[in-house]
Amino acid sequence: MKVIVIGLGSMGKRRIRLIGQYDEAIRICGIDTSGERREQTEKEYGIETLDSIECVREDEYDCAFICTSPLSHSGLIHTCLSLNMHVFTEINLVSDGYDENMKLAAERGKALFLSSTFLYREEIGYIDRMVRKSSNPVSYLYHIGQYLPDWHPWENYKDYFVGDRRTNGCRELFAIELPWLLHTFGDVQRIHVVKARATGLQINYPDSYLVTLEHENGVRGSLAVDVVSRKAVRNLEVFSEDMYLAWNGTPESLRYYDYEHKVEVTVNLYDRVDHRDGYDRFIIENSYLHEIEAFFAQVKDGAVPVYGFEKDKETLALIDRIEE
């Protein structure tokens, strides 16, 4: 199998590394307009690189991984499908071209796979199972936040997509978290939003949100999302009359309360945690690999992914409501 990875930043390099881990026989070619990134990638991973998708011919490659900034995704997806490739794309943040690209993928008989990494976390799977087992009404409190300049310390936050109002930092956090929240707790019936500016950051969008969500099945949630918190946080509590779960975003922090014995118990779900130096403690490679496995299962066997473009249209519409 021959694969191209478009965009050789940190995420593109992660995909190259994990595709090789999935199957070292796959031939990978990287594409980036930056000569420095291409040279670095060639040296680090021993692959060939190109400076443009225009260098690729129809049927030359089997699959494309699109790892560029979100506003470029729609056109690249269309181009790759037109070149007869299956497509894996990172989160899009906007629904530009969704209907056209879904139609083209169907016409071409090609997989169109959308990353939603948290749906492949073992902790999320456990939380989902416990919520579905609960026989009582469930509620949750969830805070996700990190100071925006700390996201990419190597570059100014105004110089990449989080500086753009359409693909802003809070919107990305919502797009990362809402797919699994909706999958686990159900579709949203009502929302109430309080948003504000709490920093002196040079951005033209709110930097903090408090959102109350009422789900159609009776679940109620309180979601705090911000790019303000100087400590990177991901703090979740899920509770009902017969259940209490807490998770701080790391593999070792998932726990439940054994109310019969009045003790909190840590849940161990991993035989091995793959964590790369230099990344936040919340980021583990396991789930990124699992979604690559799910993509190739769709390509090879027609497996239906847990999340896709049709559902993402609904998620992005909900984020639009939150940002109104």
Key features of this structure:
single chain; six-stranded parallel β-sheet; 324 residues; 23% strand; alpha/beta; Rossmann fold; 2 domains; Dihydrodipicolinate Reductase, domain 2; globular
Report on this structure.
The protein has about 325 residues and is α/β, with parallel strands linked by helices. The chain has two domains: about 1-115, Rossmann fold (3-Layer(aba) Sandwich), CATH 3.40.50; about 120-280 and about 310-324, Dihydrodipicolinate Reductase, domain 2, CATH 3.30.360. The chain has eight helices and 14 strands. It has helices spanning about 10-20, 35-45, 75-80, 100-110, 120-135, 170-185, 285-300, 310-324; strands at about 1-5, 25-30, 50, 65, 85-90, 110-115, 140-145, 190-195, 210-215, 220-225, 235-240, 245, 255-260, 265. The strands form two sheets. An eight-stranded mixed beta sheet has the order 8-9-10-7-11-12-13-14, covered by helices on one side.
